[in-house]
Design a protein that fits this description.
It contains 10 helices and no strands. The longest helix is centred in the middle third of the chain and has 33 residues.
Length: 258
């Protein structure tokens, strides 16, 4: 479809906000996906276009968090492979899903992701009390179980990116990580992996609206890079609260607008 200049301008603004949201906690697709649906783009094609357009923004955001990955290199390298394989599996699953089925699943997926992150704090506090865990900042080595979980997260991310960052933050917390900013760095790195392979798959299958994707790329890159620096200066409790609000608010909107 051919978008008007006004529509492209609106998409640019929305994608900038989406890039900023991705930088804080993930879920930028919750903004860009509905906007594309409003332009008349079919759901599967809208998700594909959004994934391709937001990937450069994730890269820009990752540049802002590169220092936060120091000390977590083992995590990043161990989880990159399952993220890539999961992203490919999720992209292929989306290609096999019709627009109606995909639209019906989205609210449930986002609600589950928001619920997981919100429960992460109380669950981790209970686990630490039960096992008398040492100081929460101790080094933790990724296990094969964690690798398997990241594959599932990557599959979800390749299928539909909205909420994937929230899922990863919750999973990282359950794995034992406690520094929200370091978790954001790992989240952005792994998002690059599974969204990258999904974007390549969608582009190869001809599902991407390239004029819209180009405008969204500029907006998401600017928003992601700018917000990555600001997010690191925000207290952790504010970041966690923002993640929960974004997740549940988006889920409610998706349920009521189906």
């Amino acid at each position: 479809m051919a978008a008007t200049p006004a529509q492209l301008g609106a998409i640019a603004v929305v994608s900038a906000l989406g890039g900023a949201v991705n930088s804080i906690a993930g879920g930028g697709t919750l903004l860009t996906f509905p906007a594309l649906l409003g332009l008349g783009v079919p759901p599967v094609a809208a998700n594909a276009t959004s994934t391709v357009a937001l990937w450069p923004g994730s890269l820009a955001s990752m540049l802002g968090y590169r220092k936060e990955l120091q000390g977590a290199e083992r995590w990043a390298l161990r989880l990159a492979v399952p993220s890539v394989l999961g992203g490919l599996a999720g992209a292929l699953l989306l290609l096999a899903t019709g627009d109606a089925q995909f639209r019906a699943l989205v609210p449930w997926l986002v609600f589950g992701a928001a619920l997981l992150f919100t429960l992460q704090g109380p669950v981790m506090a209970w686990v630490r009390r039960r096992i008398a865990a040492p100081h929460p900042e101790r080094p933790i080595t990724p296990t094969w179980g964690m690798v398997a979980v990241q594959f599932l997260v990557g599959t979800y991310g390749g299928f539909f990116g909205a909420g994937a960052g929230i899922v990863m933050l919750g999973v990282f917390g359950l794995m034992g990580l406690t520094n929200i900013h370091q978790m954001n760095g790992l989240k952005n790195f792994n998002g690059l992996c599974f969204n990258g392979v999904a974007a390549i798959t969608f582009a190869a299958m001809g599902l991407v609206d390239w004029p819209i994707a180009a405008v969204m790329t500029v907006g998401s890159s600017a928003g992601g890079y700018a917000m990555s620096h600001l997010a690191q200066r925000v207290p952790q409790r504010w970041v966690r609260a923002a993640v929960s609000v974004i997740g549940f608010g988006s889920a409610v909107w998706l349920f009521t607008s189906r």
